[in-house]
From TrEMBL, chain A:
<dbReference type="GO" id="GO:0006506">
    <property type="term" value="P:GPI anchor biosynthetic process"/>
</dbReference>
<comment type="similarity">
    <text>Belongs to the PIGS family.</text>
</comment>
<keyword id="KW-0256">Endoplasmic reticulum</keyword>
<protein>
    <submittedName>
        <fullName>GPI transamidase component</fullName>
    </submittedName>
</protein>
<keyword id="KW-0812">Transmembrane</keyword>
<feature type="region of interest" description="Disordered">
    <location>
        <begin position="492"/>
        <end position="518"/>
    </location>
</feature>
<feature type="compositionally biased region" description="Basic and acidic residues">
    <location>
        <begin position="492"/>
        <end position="504"/>
    </location>
</feature>
<keyword id="KW-0337">GPI-anchor biosynthesis</keyword>
<dbReference type="GO" id="GO:0042765">
    <property type="term" value="C:GPI-anchor transamidase complex"/>
</dbReference>
Automatic annotation (TrEMBL), chain B:
<feature type="signal peptide">
    <location>
        <begin position="1"/>
        <end position="20"/>
    </location>
</feature>
<feature type="active site" description="Nucleophile">
    <location>
        <position position="190"/>
    </location>
</feature>
<dbReference type="GO" id="GO:0016255">
    <property type="term" value="P:attachment of GPI anchor to protein"/>
</dbReference>
<dbReference type="InterPro" id="IPR028361">
    <property type="entry name" value="GPI_transamidase"/>
</dbReference>
<feature type="transmembrane region" description="Helical">
    <location>
        <begin position="373"/>
        <end position="392"/>
    </location>
</feature>
<dbReference type="GO" id="GO:0006506">
    <property type="term" value="P:GPI anchor biosynthetic process"/>
</dbReference>
<keyword id="KW-0472">Membrane</keyword>
<keyword id="KW-1133">Transmembrane helix</keyword>
<dbReference type="GO" id="GO:0006508">
    <property type="term" value="P:proteolysis"/>
</dbReference>
């Protein structure tokens, strides 16, 4: 073989190896490597550790006094409020911004949207006390002249406002369990909740009920009242031949709550799969069967009894069965709607146990704020879980969409924090807007965590990798590398000849070359 | 009658720690039942899963909270002498494939990917809710798997396999997102105990039918069906569970004690190091049943009186009774009145000028008015307009205006 042919062969060998290494390996790496978008892990970690401490919720409160003019009362109350709040360990920092009553600002807002800001009314009376308005965000503090002389009034106001008017914030944000939902009765907060209202009868007789007019009259106002917090969708239906299995209890003499829990069968009413909302509440009005309970259910004392089912809803059990072609009137359904409305507050977590709601307006307002903070906390925890998992599972892909969702969520969080921290903004509109944004924040963080492309088998045994790659890469690698090594070791024929037989004519070499090529 | 039980319930909850009884914190139960094998000769795996389905459903877990994955449709197999039926015993006493079976994943939908997606709830948007595991931090989940397995893996559909690491990682993702309170993992395959060996997330209890390098066996064959109809481990589990009712106090320790080598013909294994509670405190119904607590609701009379006063108050404009619904009703009434006021004021505005001409405020006098000036003016305006309309020549057709003729603001 002439040296030029040998050089050409060597060049081709080098080219093939270079192609293998410079093109093949990067392409293989590119095609087999899962895309992992760079998430802001450090920032999320800092949020989880609460290193940023950028939340300090401030709620504006206006003090109004028609009797006396106290030019510096709000400053004195501010000092007392701060000292009271600092006396307790605050897991989520919050404070009140006390301001003198601004008639222009507040009257403007009140006429357009109702009582938007929290107002403390000071009323001169013969004793010291307070009352919370049932239908407005208003606290009335009664004081006497001696409390003014002894300078106790600022403390009275501070105590009333912090410990009573803002009782929910005071208890939830200043305790160890803060922002962790521990209520076994209430469902997890969701902005959209479905309400299923069912009439169940143990018989198959045709029955009707005036549910449409009752709902329009009583439930629609409640829906509207709670609409800043929750959007309710409602469906109604009649189920025949279903008494929730209550007839089995009729033979027993002493029915306990445990018997009821074990006998009741709600499986046919758990139909939340058919609705798009992620949470649902139920109201079931049950009548026993005439055949099984002719004389009524013995464990029901009156005409009907109401029962609460934690995180599910309410059951109204009637003592006597429905007659043929019965129609349940609005008059019958109205007290049930009253009871259900009160229970909804408990099932949403707006009140605990059966305690009375002193001021629904103030409670709803506080609940909004707690929910906003809970949503922020929930989103932070979700993002932290996402960060941890992506670090733990290195083979899991992280699509760009996840990064986009995470970035949007973090920006949204800052926007909400700015709203919460503003000491001069605190009307209904602000809290409603912050709540809507916080719901979006949760949605974005969950969309990032539950992204459909982040599912792959994380674990691949070595045998699997070998089984996949060996048939494909084995032959190519073996041929390329061994061919190249052979080429390196090979010497040109004229050199060989020169070392062995230097006098031999070149014609033989050509002949031999042909033989080799064959 | 039920009122006193409310207080007893509260007292019991207070005294529980004193007596050392630790109840589960869960409020809802879910079940994921998976058969991974295909083909007629694996009839028993379908029967295993359907038997478990029947048990959890009997104990109150609703279909919406059961995810049933059946890798083959043996009920409709042409070799089935009892079309549409599946039996787990040669006495054919119970048809497991009755009218009310809701299969969520069937045939080739039963894949490793779908199973992992189900556990981690990572789906595309079009996935229906009925095929998702919508659990939360209050959910107890019972996961049952059956099929052909080996050391650290379980075959799916004769085409792929799931490794124990995959399930462990999926559980970890569930734990991170607070998607369970407790998990009870039961697996009936050959070398089943290896399937839970890699778990590392807390609050998981696992039980398997056989040790490493040990086979799981079928219980018996049915001559008419021609194949084995149930596996031994599942058979004896079901034998135990048949005696359980929703109010049963039997614990998981009792179930595990019932597994003997003589019965199962293999060494059933239990992994409890990740589980917080003592197995003697864990009721069978904590995982196999759905017991909804029912609490008597107080204050019925108050609501009846509130409703009565509202109904009667409609007629005589009674005063406000403090109640949430009354507050909502009052707020709505106030708002609608405000809207009405606005509408009314907007409606009478054309007459305002007239009233001002006479020095009266017409807005304050809603409804019928004794003043007839507006009516007279309205009549005059109508008459004047119609006269002008009659005087316009009919033949003339409208001509378009030129740009120069148009007013500047046009």
């Amino acid at each position: 073989m002439p040296s030029t042919t040998f050089k050409l062969r060597k060049l081709i060998g080098v080219c093939l190896l270079a192609l293998y290494l410079l093109l093949g390996v990067p392409v293989w790496y590119k095609l087999t490597t899962t895309y992992r978008a760079p998430l802001p892990i450090e920032y999320i970690h800092a949020l989880h550790e609460d290193k940023l401490q950028d939340i300090h919720m401030v709620i504006p409160v206006y003090i109004k006094c028609d009797t006396y003019r106290f030019p510096d009362l709000h400053e004195a109350v501010q000092v007392q409020v701060n000292s009271l709040l600092n006396s307790k360990n605050q897991n989520v920092p919050w404070s009140l911004q006390l301001m003198p009553y601004d008639a222009k600002k507040l009257q403007d807002s009140n006429t357009s949207k109702g009582a938007d800001y929290h107002v403390v009314n000071l009323v001169l009376d013969g004793f010291v006390g307070f009352s919370l308005a049932y239908d407005a965000k208003e606290t009335t503090v009664f004081f006497d002249d001696s409390s003014v002389i002894t300078n106790d009034l600022p403390f009275f106001i501070a105590q009333t406002v912090v410990e009573h008017a803002f009782e929910l914030e005071w208890s939830e944000l200043s305790s160890e369990k803060s922002l962790k939902a521990t209520n076994s009765m209430a469902i997890s907060y969701r902005p959209n909740i479905h309400v299923s209202i069912s009439l169940l009868t143990g018989d198959g007789y045709p029955v009707s009920w005036e549910i449409d007019s009752t709902l329009k009259k009583y439930f629609s106002p409640l829906r509207k009242f709670l609409s800043p917090l929750v959007n309710f969708t409602v469906d109604t239906g009649i189920l025949y031949y279903n008494d929730l299995n209550l007839h089995t209890l009729n033979t027993r003499k002493n029915v306990t709550w445990q018997d009821l829990s074990h006998s009741i069968d709600l499986s046919e009413l758990l139909s939340m799969n058919y609705f798009s909302e992620s949470a649902s509440l139920n109201l079931a009005v049950v009548f026993p069967s005439e055949q099984n309970c002719k004389h009524g259910l013995s464990f029901i004392n009156d005409n009907w009894d109401g029962f609460l089912v934690p995180q599910w809803g309410m059951i109204v059990v009637n003592k006597y069965p429905l007659k043929q072609n019965s129609s349940l009137t609005e008059r019958y359904l109205t007290p049930i709607m009253y009871q259900f409305a009160t229970n909804i507050f408990q099932l949403l977590g707006l009140k605990k146990d059966s305690q009375e709601l002193i001021s629904p307006s103030i409670t709803i307002d506080s609940f909004k704020r707690i929910t906003i903070l809970q949503n922020i906390h929930k989103a932070e925890e979700t993002l932290w879980s996402l960060a941890k998992l992506t670090q733990a599972f290195q083979t899991m892909s992280i699509p760009k969409e996840v990064l986009r969702n995470v970035t949007e969520a973090l920006e949204l969080r800052l926007q909400i924090v700015d709203m919460l921290n503003d000491p001069f903004q605190g009307d209904d509109e602000l809290w409603n807007r912050a709540l809507i944004l916080s719901n979006q924040l949760v949605e974005l963080s969950e969309a990032a965590f539950f992204h459909g492309e982040m599912v792959q088998q994380n674990f691949f045994p070595q045998e699997h990798k070998l089984a996949v790659y060996l048939p494909l890469l084995g032959p190519i690698t073996v041929v390329t590398f061994f061919g190249f090594i052979r080429l390196i070791k090979e010497k040109p024929d004229d050199k060989k000849k020169r070392s062995n037989e230097p006098e031999k004519p070149t014609g033989n070499v050509v002949e031999k070359t042909y033989e080799l090529e064959e | 009658m039920l009122g006193i039980w409310r207080y007893i319930l509260i007292a019991l909850s207070v005294l529980q720690p004193v007596f050392g009884v630790i109840e589960s914190k869960h409020t809802n139960n879910w079940a994921v039942l998976v058969s991974t094998s295909r083909f007629w000769f694996n009839y028993r795996h379908m029967a295993n899963v359907l038997s478990m389905y029947r048990t959890v459903k009997r104990l109150g877990i609703p279909d919406s909270q059961i995810i049933l994955m059946l890798s083959d449709d043996v009920a409709c197999n042409s070799r089935n002498l009892f079309p549409g039926s599946v039996f787990n015993n040669q006495d054919h006493a119970i048809d497991l494939y009755g009218d009310s079976v809701e299969v969520d994943y069937r045939g080739y939908e039963v894949t490793v990917e779908n199973f992992i997606r189900l556990l981690t709830d990572r789906w595309y948007e079009d996935q229906p809710k009925s095929k998702r595991l919508l659990t939360d931090e209050n959910s107890n989940i019972f996961i049952y798997m059956t099929g052909h397995g080996g050391d650290d893996f379980l075959k799916f559909q004769d085409a792929e396999e799931i490794a124990s690491e995959d399930i462990a990682d999926a559980f970890e993702q569930m734990y991170e997102k607070k998607r369970y309170n407790e998990i009870f993992f039961m697996v009936d395959t050959c070398q089943a105990n290896t399937m839970y060996s890699k778990f590392y997330s807390p609050n998981i209890l696992a039980v398997g039918s056989s040790e490493i390098d040990e086979s799981s066996y079928s219980h018996h064959s049915d001559v008419e069906i021609g194949v084995a109809v149930i596996d031994r481990f599942t058979y004896y589990s079901l034998d135990f569970l048949e005696g359980i009712e929703k109010d049963s106090n039997t614990t998981l320790q009792d179930l595990f004690d019932s597994y003997t080598f003589e019965k199962v013909h293999s060494h059933a294994g239990i992994r409890k190091d990740l589980f917080q509670r003592d197995l003697k405190d864990v009721l069978i119904t904590d995982f196999f049943a759905n017991v909804q607590n029912v609490i008597p609701d107080q204050g019925k009379d108050e609501f009846i009186s509130a409703a009565d006063s509202k109904i009667s108050g409609d007629n005589k404009n009674d005063s406000f009774v403090p109640n949430i619904l009354n507050l909502a009703l009052e707020r709505t009434a106030w708002e609608s009145e405000k809207i009405r006021e606005n509408e009314t004021s907007a409606g009478v505005s054309p007459f305002t000028k007239t009233s001002k001409l006479n020095g009266n405020n017409w807005i304050r006098q809603e409804g019928s008015s004794t003043n007839t000036y507006p009516h007279i003016i309205a009549v005059i305006v109508v008459l004047f307009t119609s006269t002008i309309y009659c005087l316009i020549p009919r033949s003339a057709s409208p001509t378009s205006t030129t740009k120069g003729q148009r007013l500047p603001y046009m």
